[in-house]
Design a protein that fits this description.
Helices cover 27% and strands 25% of the residues. The chain is of the alpha+beta class. The chain has a single domain (13-250), classed as Alpha-Beta Complex (Creatine Amidinohydrolase). The protein binds 2-amino-4-trifluoromethylsulfanyl-butyric acid and cobalt (II) ion. Cobalt (II) ion (CO) binds at residues 111, 174, 205, 207, 238.
Length: 257
């Protein structure tokens, strides 16, 4: 969800190393949150666990205070697409739970999201979760020097739609580095061969949001929580990925299952 327009900043190998350090911390936080996730706990419990781990690793949440966002992480259950504010809502058997987190360490940001099934989840929801991850992977395959942004967008969209799912259009991926949201925007839909040229030093948060039903979403009265218009489930999968001379490097890989 990028803010105002800025220029695309390419990162040096040194800067990508710094982003890697930030991402390593984020991965540790994901491990802790994944281990803790259980039926009966509240989304606020997850927020507290994440916040503790972030601070213990001498980083800070990239989300807390961002445009007034009131918590350290986003937890989005079932029909919630993204930006679920941690609350006293309990996680129930059969839920799919998306956890979206970002940290800043020594001035460098990393950002990632996972959607995990909890307990006995029906096959339709499991397929949705697999497809969201598959969309990310299809997108990353196109993240190559000489390709264009639209190659990523189109691959994500086709992966979802060819399997009977839809991609959210109102929220997009983004560049990331010394800010959480940098240019360019990375839509999860579009045409291959269009858009900016991908080059070494570009670091992107690629983040497909995939819906079981309509792609349409709405924002609740708290001005944050994004839900599907039809109440069907949604899954979110995100990583911070750097384009290096050795190709695309997923800085936040891990904890996918
Ligand atoms: N991964 C989300 C994004 O890039 C996280 C933003 S949540 C906010 O849009 F709280 F920071 F806004
Ligand atoms: Co993001």
């Amino acid at each position: 969800m990028p803010g105002k327009r800025r220029l695309i900043t390419l990162k040096s190998p040194r800067e990508i190393d710094m982003m890697c350090e930030s991402a390593e911390i984020l991965k540790k936080v994901f491990v802790g949150v994944r281990e803790a996730l259980n039926i009966g706990m509240t989304t606020q419990d997850l927020d507290r666990i994440a916040d503790d781990l972030i601070l213990r690793n001498k980083a800070r949440s990239a989300f807390k205070g961002y445009r007034g966002y009131p918590a350290s992480i986003c937890v989005s259950i079932n029909e919630t697409v993204v930006h679920g504010i941690p609350s006293n809502r309990k996680i129930r058997d059969g839920d799919i739970v998306s956890v979206d987190m970002g940290v800043v360490f020594k001035g460098y940001y990393s950002d990632a999201a996972r959607t995990w099934p909890v307990g006995h989840v029906d096959e339709e929801k499991l397929e949705l979760v697999r497809v969201a991850r598959g969309c990310f992977e299809a997108g990353v395959k196109q993240f190559k020097a000489g390709h264009r942004l639209g190659d990523i967008s189109s691959a994500v969209q086709q992966y979802a739609e060819s399997r009977g799912f839809s991609v959210v259009r109102d929220f997009v991926g983004h560049g990331i580095g010394r800010a959480l949201h940098e240019d360019p925007q990375v839509p999860n839909f579009g045409e291959s061969g269009r858009g900016g040229l991908l080059q070494e030093g570009l670091v992107l948060a690629i983040e497909p949001m995939v819906n079981a039903g309509t792609h349409e979403v709405e924002v609740e009265d708290d001005h944050w929580t994004v839900v599907t218009r039809d109440g069907e489930c949604s899954a979110h999968f995100e990583n911070t990925v750097a384009l290096t001379k050795n190709g695309a490097q997923n800085l936040t890989a891990g904890c996918e299952d």
